[in-house]
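Progress against Task 2.4 (sequence-to-structure conversion) is shown through the following example record, which the project officer requested during the mid-term review.
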Amino acid sequence: MNQAILKKRSLTAALSAFLVTSIFSQPTQAALRIWDGNGDNSNWGFTSLSGNTNWTADSLSPLPVSGDNLMFVGSANLFTNNDLSGLSIAGINYTPDSGAFMLGGNAITHTGNIVNGSSYTQTILMPIVIGVDQLWTGGPGLNVFNEVTLGNHSLSLQSNVTIDSHNAAFIVAATGNAALTLESGSKLKSLQGIIGDTTGSNGSVTVKDAGSEWINDTNLLVGNAGNGSLLIENGAKVSGKSGYIALPGGAGSVAVSGVNSLWANSQDLFVGDYGIGTLKIGSGGKVTSVDAYIGARNWINTDGTTVFGNGVVTVENNGSQLINSGQFNLGFSGNGTLNILTGGFVHSASAVLGAQIQGEGTATVSDAWSNWLIDTDLKIGDAGKGTLSILAGGVVHSATGVLGAQSGGVGNVAIKGAFSNWMIDSGLKIGDAGIGTLNIETGGLLQNTIGIIGNQAGSSGFVTVTDTGSRWINAAYLSIGTSGTGALTINNGGQVFNSYGYLGASPGGKGTVTVTGANSIWTNNYDLTVGQIGSGTLNIENGGKVSNIQGTVGDFGIGILNIKTGSLLQDSVGIIGNHAGSTGSVTVSDAFSKWINSGNLSVGVAGTGSLTINNGANVFNSDGYLGTLAGGEGTATVAHANSLWVNNGTLTVGQNGSGILNIENGGKVGNTVGMVGDLFSGTGNVTVTGIGSLWGNSKDLTIGNSGTGVLRIEAGGQVSDRSDLILNAAAVLGSSVLSNGSAIVTGTASQWTNNGGLVIGKYGTGNLRVENGGTVINNVGSLGEFASGTGSASVSGNNSRWINSANLIVGEKGSGQLSIYAGGQVSNQIGVLGGFGKGTATVTGTGSEWNNSSYLAIGDNGDGALSIENGAKVTNSIGYLGQSVNGIGRVKVTGANTSWINSNNLYIGLDLATIGTLNVENGGQVRNVDGYLGGTGAAGTFSTSSGTAIVTGANSQWLNSGNLTVGQHGIGTLLVQNQGLVSVGGDAFVDQGNGSGTVTVQSGGIFDVAGTLNIGDQGKVILNGGELAYGARNITSGGEFNWLSGTVTLNNAYLLGADNWLNGLTLNPGKGLRSKQALTIGDYAGITLNGGQLTAESLHVATTGNLDWQRGRLTLGSLRLGDTDTGFGDYLQLNANKALAVTDLSIGSAATLDIGGGATPTVTQNLKVEGVMALASGRLAVTNQVSVAAGGAISLTNAATSRLAAGGGIVNNGTVEG
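Structure tokens generated for the chain above:
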């Protein structure tokens, strides 16, 4: 027997105890081979001729063979060398007395456990192939500095075991199933780590406990083509360059758990690169990398289908961290999911969710203290689809944010729950070139500087901020629809804040914002622009609130603003349609809806703007403008009860542009100064229509200041006094030179009330129309106030009224025209036509009236003309035609039932160099107390004034209830003709004082003076076919009476002889003398009736008086032939040349009436014959009764005729013959 084989060593009790705990723990008990180091060298296979080796064994073989357990004891030959080949070792053990061995040499296959029981660190330099599942226990330390091939087995490293295979990859499950555990400070160092290498393989690695570490010089692949799992826990660490979880066909999962547990990737991290990968970081674990790709890439399968990488990362619990010094790509071209939960923390330099077209990334940051910190950009949906949910107090912090970055990119973000917060240091774009959707709900918070929704052309962005406590805070501006399409909805108590707000900022941009619900608020610390260059729509509904400094709707683009259902917009300045080419539209609707501007509101500055206030809504501002600059067009409509537009300052409709204001169906507008058509090119139109509709101006109202203005009040509308809106103080139509202002007030209950004056044509052109029952009320009214002013007013229709509580001046210094027709009415105190200018008035039609409670001056210092026609009426106290120096006044009163009623005197040509003309024709009537034609003034002065009156036509009348003076201190002319009548209730003066007067009464005309007719030295009366009546007459030596034809009527009993003018009067054909009472021809007086007419109630001829009746007509009220004072004696013979008409005729008992041939006397009442009445070929007509007294006789001869009218009778007590 070989001595070496039989070599024995005595073992101590301690060694025996160790063998019990180590040898028998080996899976195979082939032989125990103990290294004693007694060989001549350190080779495992050394043997000498003497049989000396380094081994002691309980077998016959002196050297180790496969299946042996190796035990190293002592300190001899510590540096060993395995020079044996193909050796399979069942286990390696180090005893407590072992020194620090270093095992090198050839590779071994290891099929057992390795246990270091010594107090030294042991080193293995041989490659090791793991043959079975096994456990390596390192004690104070076990270092394996060579390749370890795991195969399809499990390896557990405990207690400071280190495997260093830097020059080779360490593969866990190359083909089958394998597992690796590093614990208690164990370490694995490899060139590359692979877990689950090939299809069908399953590999798992656990690295746990502080000090345990897997170090890869290059990459770590978990699920290369197979299934791989990695668990790092309890402070362990795994490191390498890049980490891959799930490559093509593979599935991999990594869990990093516990405080100080770390997976450190010096380069990138891929989770679900081509396969399905998960990474879970919890309980304080940490993962680091440069870039990270979750759901990184996809690949084409052999069947042609696309397999998308799918990666899920979960970071949960306080202290758990995922740190990326580069970019975090979630869903790069595959599907990626990130969950940050219950206090987890992720820190990335930048982040992209859905980077490429096919990529889809979903991130959830949930629960208090969960935080994702991104140093620079966060893109959600770059070219693919990205979704970010921040929930239940989670926080995301980035420098910038983009949702839908590229065309085709889709980004979605939801921030839900109290304390959920996305903080962005700089700007946020929702829909940069793609589609972005952002929802902030149930108390979520978003903070950034600049916010953009729908940035580039073709992009779309949608944001909803909903529920109480939900807020979006933009430290700088917020743009909705910059060049793309953007929509923002704030509802149910959500709030949005920013400095400036823009809707439709650039060409093609379209922005829409809806703020709805109580306590839903959009706060713009500075300006808000709706439709800056593109188009924008802002809807404020259901109690929503928006505030800003300057609000512009349609800046360069198209803007729409709707405020309704009890909502509120507050700002300083409001602008609708700002620049040329812009269009702005604002509608404020429903009760409690308000737009409050602390400053001015401009509608249509240089663009087109419209404002609609209806259904009880209110708008407030300082000054208001409709059509501000040239080319600007502004329209405002205020409709329905309780709808209100309050301008605390001036309201200008058409400042230098075009403005339209419609107040309808009970709407109300109030302001201080009202201006319609303000500057040169300004055009303004205002319509107030419907019962309850009201425009109140607490100060002046100007229609056509320097431009063109139109005011229309209709269908019961009012510009009038209210308890809540003060009426306008004064009003002007056509204020400046070249301006044009007009107002139409039409319809029953339509009313315009001015607390002050109303000027129509101040320096420009003004026109007022009051129609169909409309009413205008003011203090002083003036038409054509200054020299360049032209004013016209028409009042027409039943119940149409213009009420001037003070004076009305038509043509004050300019030109004025007043028309009253078809039943219209005008009233005032003093009325003036032609103050210093030219004024005309026409009053025509039944029911049309101009009522002046004080005097009416036609041609005060100017040129005035009044025409009263067709049944119209003008009333005043004193009337003046040509009142003051150089005044010219003309009045025409024409038509049946047309009247001019002066309750006091009428002066025609009053003062120095004035001219007055009165024409009364076709049945017109003028009434006054005293009448004056041709000046008044101090005695002994001549005024150079002239007054002319012409009264012509049937029923045309000038009725003076007092005196009439024709030419007092001026020139007076009166013409009465064609059945016209001038009556004087008192005395008439033709030339009184230093004037000159002419009265001409032509055919059919009547001049009737109840009192005395006085003809002064410069007086002239011409009777040429008409009738002159007077009660008495006084003619001075220089006075003239030219009786060419016509009738003189004596209104009182008259004694001929006391009047030298009538003494020796001859009444030739065409002349008549009529006495309404008794006519007495006194002594030495006489009348020759030679073809003319003599009429008297009764005729008396004094003893020496004479009535020479040659021919003509004698008409008497009563005649008793035979009385001594009749002038006929006892005998009167009538023939064809003598016509007698008597009311009552008596023939005395001694008298004879001889009615010759051709005579036709008439008795209109009774004929009483006491003497003889002989009819010879004559004819007698008696209307009532013929009475023949006893002794009387009627003799009819030569075919004489006697006719008794029907109903008459004959009482015959005498003789009737014939």
